[in-house]
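Reviewer 2 asked us to include a model.

Predict the structure of this chain.
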Amino acid sequence: MGDILETLGDFTSKENWDNFFTICSDSFEWYAEWPNLRDPLISLLQTLTPSSPPSSLQLLVPGCGNSRLSEHLYDAGYTSITNIDFSKLVISDMLRRNIRSRPLMRWRVMDMTSMQFEDEAFAAVVDKGGLDALMEPKLGPDFDLGNQYLLEVKRVLKPGGKFVCLTLAESYVLDILFSKFRLGWKMSVDAIPLNSSSESNHQTFMVVVEKELSTTVHQITSLLRNASLNCNSKQASGLQDALQNENQVREKLSSSSDTLYAVEDLQEELAKISQGRRLQLTLGGQGCSIFSYRAVVLDAEELSDPFTYHCGVFIVPKIRACEWLFFSEEGQWMVVRSSKAARLIMVFLDTSHTNASMDEIQKDLSPLVKQLEPKENSNEAQIPFLMASDGIKKRNIVHQITSPLTGSIIVEDVVYENVDEEISCAFPSGELMFRRLVFERAANLVQSEALLTTKLVGEKKNNSSSKSKKRGSQRRNDGAYNQMTVYHGYLASSYHTGIISGFTLISSYMKNVASSGKMVKAVIIGLGAGLLPMFLHGCIPILEIEAVELDPVIVDIAREHFSFVEDKRLKVHIADGIQFVRENASSGAAQSHSKSSESPSNGSSTTHAEDVKATKVDIIIIDVDSSDSSSGLACPALDFLDESFLETVKDKLSEQGLFVVNLVSRSQAIKDMVLLRMKKVFSHLFCLQHDEDVNEIHFALKSESCIEDHCFSEATLKLDKLLKFDHPEIGQKIINATKKIKRLK
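Predicted model (structure tokens):
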């Protein structure tokens, strides 16, 4: 074993680890065998799910190597485990070892210092020697790598989540652990018992830190007992001394009047404005304010500009926190420039602030943000507060339901302060109302949005006599009333118009199909409120559309609250989208060859697959959100971008077919990964990115031949002729979007 360990040398080298895993292909435990680790670790994890099954706990194991730790946890009921390691070799080996016996376990090749997960994705992170390895390179501890890793751990942990670090507690490891988890984290240290027969004189310690949404400095709780310390005296005394010294530091910070913001790692950084700096912070909490807040501190990129404010606060309401302008770095810098502030503190409100007035919020925030202003600004009496309006004048909840698959769903009617010019011109009279479908699981994601118009219903028939006719004309609305109904001739979501604009890539083919008297066949995975298929059904008469939706509750909502109606050219299937494409897409699209039965209850039809002649699909659209927040993708689920599924899509498409994916991710690494996967399957890729939207629409052509750039204008004209609108100005938005489509190299 000593010879094997010699192959490592630098513990941060991927090549060295690949060599190690090649030699040591069986599982290898550096320290803390499972029989000794089981009871303290399981007891700890049980505190995170006191009333839920262990399988509900999202666990991350970074630097997993070929340890059996994850396998033991899985067998103990913790099946929602994601393992990462930067060695592709060991991840492949572990995946093969567990794919059948532990099918729910996830394995990903990933650098633990730069994780591709969404914020707050995991309830627990269990590190067995990962931090120790990062901090033990050949030439001395690498604090940069350690800092990067712990920053990622903080980011991916949910509030109330726990980071479990199994370590040998070397002094340099304790230094970074103690300093990085002082502000708003509870910490405890315990010893893992050693076997009496163990030849090692080094003991493993379990350092546990719990994430709080506060800025409180806690004392470290020591669970060490002399009986549990079986290690050498130097290791034990070093740990005891480190704990004592750190608690003295924390006591000093806690007793300071400037406790919350005088912490060493923030005080020096925020004292002066630093050009182009951006820091994310948690403000407030127990004992210092009513609420806690998520904030971003941004120092202007160009300090030579004349500033209206030296330091200002910009409050973002919950309803707008997910907009590109506020959640993306690029958008935030635009806000800084428009605010004319040298330092802007962006504060994001969430559900905990729902019942508080804006006056209460400002009063609560004022002493907190005062600690974040630069020293040269300290003479100013008051920091100005700015606010992004939520843009809504009126809101009325129409329907609320909880789905076993989607979670809490809200249907609401809203009136905006401002609406797009083209819709104002088309409907110039009165306030325009919109109906929205909201998924609460995804930070109150507005999944669909439709325009409502009034419709006169229930009017009595006129009598035959002229006298009755005259009386009827005078009381035209006798027995009638105005009803709000969804208008399917307009798309409120810009990414929907972006999807349709991509049809210009196959507009010549669509025109030829129409000229031959045939139909263009489309499959849309993800129904939502049914707005996209209904719009396409109305504006492109040559389309035969099949929509696929996994959640029957969503289908019911689309029918009852968004006027979704099926007919011979539009059908909906309640099914798994991936399975539908693999098994039914070609046959289901061949409507002229299929058997169908009419449902007497709602007039919808169901297609039977038997005796159906396979017909290729011309357009496949993926427009589904992801329920896995740890994937880094808000839309779609990663399974829809798996190479095998992409190959299936290509096979199901007609020779001139078009594949469309609505992609939503905050991670550039994830976007690059998606592009790489699609390039492996499709030769010609295009993309559309709206400036004001987080959605990216990716288009892929099956054909080896492709539309040339100089033909785009002609292709756009052909698409324009295929579109049929009651209000032509609405269609212009689609045509304008075609100009933003870019070819991906």
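The longest strand covers residues 445-457. The radius of gyration is 30 Å. We have added this to the supplementary material.
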